[in-house]
Structure formats: C-alpha cells, structure tokens
Amino acid sequence: MTSSERTAIWQALGTTAVLRLAQAGAAGSLNDAKVAVASELDAIDRACSRFRPDSDLSRCNAAAGQAVPVKRLLIDALEVAIGAAEATEGLVDPSVGTALELAGYACDWSLLQQRSSVPAAPAAPVVIAARRAAGWRGVQIDRARSTVRVPAGVKLDLGATAKAWAADRAAATAFRRTGIGALVALGGDIATAGAAPSGGWRIRVTDDHRASLSAPGQTVSIHDGGLATSSVTVRRWSKGDTEMHHIIDPATGEPARGAWRTASVAAASCTDANIASTAAILLSEQAIDWLAQRGLPARLVSHDGGVLHLAGWPAQPVQVAA
Amino acid sequence: MRLHTPNSRDSALSRLKSANHWLIGVSVTLTGVLTAVAANAFPGRTVKTSGAAAASGTRKAGKSAGSGSSASRLQAPARTPQSSEERGAELGASEGESTTAQSPSEGSTEKPTETEKPVEAEKPVEAEKAVEAEKPVEAERKVETQPEAPVVSGGS
Fold first, then answer.
1. DSSP 8-state assignment for residue A221
2. How far apart are CA B86 and CA B93, in angstroms?
3. Residues 35-74 in A contacting B (C-alpha not used; CB under 8 Å)
4. Which of A103, A195, A207, A233 could bond A181 through an S-S bridge, CB–CB 3.0 to 4.6 Å?
5. Given an 8 Å threshold on Cβ–Cβ distance, is B132 in contact with A210?
6. What is residue B149's DSSP assignment?
7. Cβ neighbours of residue A170 under 8 Å, at least 6 residues apart?
8. Could you tell me whether strands B109-110 and A307-310 are parallel, antiparallel, or unpaired per DSSP bridges?
9. What is the pLDDT of residues A241-269, one digit of tens each?
10. Do A271 and B70 touch (CB under 8 A)?
C-alpha cells in the first residue's frame, strides 16, 4: 500500500485500488477508511470471483442446475448483473462465462498474462453449444432462501459489473467512515460519494488505467456519481493467430469487434457508467444514439484514434502551437 | 350405392374428430419445438429499449431483482463532467498550451490530437510493468506536492 495525506493506493480485486478523500481529515481517518474499504473489497472478491474455487460464484457455476446457498453479497452482485442485462437488453450479459473460457480467459489475468498464447479455438460445435448456453434469464435468485440456481451448462462471470459495483460500495463506505467526500477507483472504474473537492474530482481518461498521466487522453472533473472506461486495448491475449480481449459479445460468443477501442461514460453511479461503457463497445456505431437517448455523457475513441463526445461530455481543448 | 348406417356415420365422425385433435396437438408441439430451435440457433439482440421485452425477461432472472439502480434504466449524473485540461496541463497531463473547453457540443466529432494514436496490443503489457513498479511512488510524490493530480480512468 502507498499512502499520502489524502490518497491510498493498493492492490485489490486483481487490480489497482485508489482511495482519495476530498480533504485531509483527522489523523488516521484515511487509514480507517482504507481498512474498511479493503475489508469490503476482500469480501466481494471472496463472493464474486470466477477464479477463486472457494468463492460463492464458483460454487454456483460448479453446481449449475442446482440451487446453491450463497452469501447475501453474491445475491446483491447478481441482481446488479441481471439488472445490467435487463437495462441493455442482454448486451451486458453475466452468462458469458463459458464463452470467456472458450476464448482462453479461463484463469486469473495475472496467470494468463504470463502465457504467450492459449490453445487454438475449439471445434465449432463446442462454440455453438456455449453460445446457446448463454442465458441470464434462466438464473434464479431466491433472496428469501439466499440461494442461486445457475442454469445447467451456464457459467456466470460478473466482470462487467462487479468491480464498478464494488467501487460504488467502497466509496459509500469511505464516506460513511470519515464523513468526508470520497473517491474510489478500481482499475479505472471510478465512484464517488459525498461532497467533491472544490473544482470536482479530476480524472484523466485514457485507454489503459495503468497508463501515466502523460498518456493520450483527456482530463475532466466530475462532482458526483461515477465514471467508467471500457477498452479493448487491455486484457488482450493471443489464441492461435487471433487477438482476443475480454469484452465478449453475447450474440456471437466471441470478443467484440466494433467501432470503438475505448468508451468512457459518466453516470449517476459507477455501476451505471460501467454498464453503459461496456454496452457502447458492444453496440459499435449504434452506441451513439443509444447513449444520447439516455443522456449519458460519453467519450468514444475509434480504432484510428478519432474521438467523439456525446451528451454533454466536454470538448477536448484545442492544442495551440507555441 | 352403399348406404351408411347412423352407427357407421357416428364412428367415422368420431375418427375424424380424433384425427383433428391429433393434428392440432402435433402442430402446436412442432411450433414450440421449431421456435426453440430457431431461438437457440440464431441468437440476436434488440437495440431499442422495449419495456415489455425487458419485463418478460425479468420473471425468471430477477424474481427478487429490482433493487439496483440499473434494474430499470441507466441514470445520467446530476452534473455533466467538466473540462479540466488547463490544470491537467499544469501537472504535465497534456502537452502544450490548452485553451478552455467550450460548452459541450453534443455529437460533435473531434479531430484526434497527435497523441491519440491507436494503442498497440502489446503496449498495455509494457505499460503495466512500468506503471506497477512506479505508479505508487509517483502518485505519492505528486499528492504531496500537487494535491490535485488526477486519478486515471482507463480500460482494466
């Protein structure tokens, strides 16, 4: 962990976690908030990780077809994931777990990165079977009994929503703990709670959350809600001769091949922002109308570097030659 | 000409009725089977939001769903993002002198800046090695001296 007066940085959920307070609080307040946030993120990881065999989600996937008792945390996360599928008409689909595995993303990202390539594509019938198995509508959640039943043949992956949802919860936790406005960033998914600092929370939007501040992009400020960026330039690997990435199109069961390489969206929550940014990647050109109709400020970057600002996203300042 | 007795006529009508029932049953079953086959063989998606379609999917998937903000629709922020490039330039976030951003122009396409070149697939991996080792130290130093250094939002 790295700390300063207002900012703490550490690793969580397989990515970089940043906690920033709007102002310096009483001595130890940042650390108190960080401990609370880290504990919450750890609990979410234990409930929702696809790569931890002891997680509630892994147990549900392993016992597909049967109702499995789970913690309330997974039920909450699943309801968010199902809500995302409903809000996007199935575009942001949590039941693409099998398709992700067939694409080669079958282990933790840190392990996948170490491999130069994953085995070539499986036979067509296997892919078709996985495609057919995708079915978020078949997931049964029984909150009263605290059980989840995943349809037989389906594997869930909450990668499209869980991290952003965790950021929303973490920011709220930090705000409750300190009484000071808080921002939490999890791998580039940014959530805020409470009052923003003067001038707003400053955010550098770029292709990769690990990039330095000088990387190509735009700096904006937000005062509330969340901001999320989805990009096909990260989490890439080779499968045979094909370049793969982690955003799966549920209509094809394969990585999205749309018009945008990166989509950033601001919304009332980080969860909503991330759902919209993922949907924008999948919708390709149709994302322009889709986002505008919902009034979601967005910045879309095409594969050739063209930038499109939508629904109130500020224009990029013109660079003036010295 | 052959004469039909009432019994033989009733018997024939009964057979016809039975055959009709069979035909209706088989056609209904076939329709259902073919619909399921077609739905699985040609998965599609609807771009336009349809309340009825969304509601029909909620039954099974979300018996207890609806508590999340995204269950019905996605919500826009109370305030739209503001440009912050001037201060970003001061912190070295962007090269050159910047002018203040104009009011947002919806749907406007912007000529990419020179720095907006496509990112190569290998770049994130390289960036990760460098940034993971250096970012915490860099961030700490900047927060101490430049308390408003922006947080990065990018793909992850």
1. E
2. 9
3. none
4. A195
5. yes
6. P
7. A17, A19, A37, A40, A41, A184, A186, A191
8. antiparallel
9. 666 667 777 777 677 788 898 999 999 99
10. yes
Assess A288–B contact: CB distance below 8 Å, yes or no. yes
Kindly report the pTM of this predicted structure: 0.68
Q: What number of C-beta contacts closer than 8 Å exist between A and B? A: 395
Q: Identify whether the C-beta of residue A134 lies closer than 8 Å to the C-beta of residue A93.
A: yes
At position B1, the amino acid (one-letter code) is M
Compute the distance between CA of residue A84 and CA of residue A160 in angstroms, rounded to an integer. Answer: 9
* Residue A42 C-beta-side C-alpha neighbours within 13 Å: 7
Residue A33 corresponds to which tokens in the numbers above? Answer: 């908030």
* Token code pair at residue A274: 């991330």
Q: How many CB atoms within 10 Å of residue A286?
A: 15
Q: Helix A270-283 and helix A72-87: axis angle, to 10°?
A: 40
> How much helix, strand and coil, in percent to the nearest 5, is found in chain B?
50, 5, 45
From CA B140, how far away is CA A3, in angstroms rounded? 7
Work out the number of other CB atoms within 10 angstroms of the CB of residue A23: 13
Separation CA A39–CA A41 (nearest Å) = 5
pLDDT of residue A291: 92
Residue closest to A180 by CA, chosen among A28, A15, A42: A28
Helices (H), chain B: 6-41, 51-61, 85-90, 123-145
ipTM: 0.76
Q: Which residues of chain B have a pLDDT value below 70?
A: 1-3, 39-72, 85-148
Residues in chain A, overall count: 322
Q: Are A185 and B97 in contact (CB < 8 Å)?
A: no
Q: Does A169 touch chain B (CB under 8 A)?
A: no
Give dist(CA A76, CA A63) in Å, integer: 19
Contact A30, A2 (CB under 8 A): no
From residue A180, alpha-carbon distances to A32, A39, A138, A194, B79 in Å are 12, 19, 42, 7, 20
- At A192-250, the pLDDT tens digits run 999 999 889 999 998 877 777 777 788 899 999 999 999 888 666 566 666 666 777 77
Decide: helix, strand or coil at residue A159.
Answer: coil
Contacts of residue B58, defined as CB under 8 A and 6 or more positions apart, other chains included, come to A86, B65, B66
What is the spatial distance between Cα A110 and Cα A119, in angstroms, rounded to a whole number? 17
Asked whether A87 and B74 are in contact (CB, 8 A), the reply is yes
